[in-house]
Amino acid sequence: MLKGIHHVAIICGDYPRSKAFYTKVLGLEVIDENYREDRQSYKCDLALPDGGQIELFSFKDAPLRPSRPEAQGLRHLAFKVDNLDEVVSYLKDNAIEVEPVRVDPYTHKRFTFFADPDKLPLELYEL
After folding, report:
1. Are residues 18 and 54 in the same domain?
2. Which domain holds residue 78?
3. Which CATH number goes with the domain that contains 14?
4. Residue 21: exposed, middle, or buried by beta-carbon count in 10 A (0-12, 13-18, 19+)?
5. Is residue 69 exposed (0-12), middle (13-18) or buried (19+ Cβ within 10 Å)?
6. What is the pLDDT of residue 69?
7. How far apart are CA 12 and CA 123, in angstroms?
8. Cα-to-chain-centroid distance, residue 107
9. Number of structural domains, the chain?
10. How confident is the model over 58-98, as pLDDT tens digits?
């Protein structure tokens, strides 16, 4: 049956800005990048350290998707981290706004949220 998540697909509003965010700020490596002339669209596959991938797309005139207030659909994308304070400090040093750290009342694990350039909610979850 299911073996895990292979990839998460993200449609961005400004492809160069989002590609820079995911590669330069978050440090993801480009596996493959293609411009699809027939769709006037980029598709960039980015490697996550655990073998998963993020597919970054651009589509001309893609409509905005509400994130806040929370809307139905995918709520957020969560990344596992070993040291939450270290990653939060790094993001703040790179001018990324980060919410205050919280503790999950059920798992007692620490987590926080930040956003990508299109305001997609991203979570850091400390192992």
Report:
1. yes
2. 74-127
3. 3.10.180.10
4. buried
5. exposed
6. 81
7. 18
8. 23
9. 2
10. 998 899 888 878 888 888 999 999 999 999 999 999 999 99
Strands (E), the chain: 7-12, 29-36, 41-47, 53-58, 77-81, 102-103, 110-115, 121-126
CA–CA distance, 89 with 62 (Å, rounded to integer): 33
89/46 same-domain check: no
Which of 61, 88, 113 terminates a domain? The answer is 61
How many other C-beta atoms lie within 10 A of the C-beta of residue 19?
A: 20
Check whether residue 102 and residue 51 sit in a common domain: no
Cα separation of 127 and 69, whole Å? 28
Q: What is the pTM of this model?
A: 0.89
Angle, vertex CA 107, rays to CA 27 and CA 125, nearest 5: 10
Assigned domain for 83 exists: yes
